[in-house]
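To: structure subgroup
Subject: Chain for Friday's discussion

All,

I'm putting the inputs and outputs inline so they're searchable in the archive.
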Amino acid sequence: FVKGFPIPIGRAEKANLQVRVEAFNLFNRINISGISSSLSSGNFAHATSAYPMRTLQLALKFVF
């Protein structure tokens, strides 16, 4: 999920503030990965890792 929007500053609108919000895994669900496919492994058909947890980023950019 990425959302950005400009905010005009002043009446001349020659300068503005850009705000950007990025969210990854917003609902913090477990996303498994790395399922073992080796028949001889003791971890056969088990997930051995997971993708990263929730990450939020906020960016501000002043343009003039």
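Points worth raising on Friday:
The chain has no helices and five strands.
The chain has a mean pLDDT of 82.

D.
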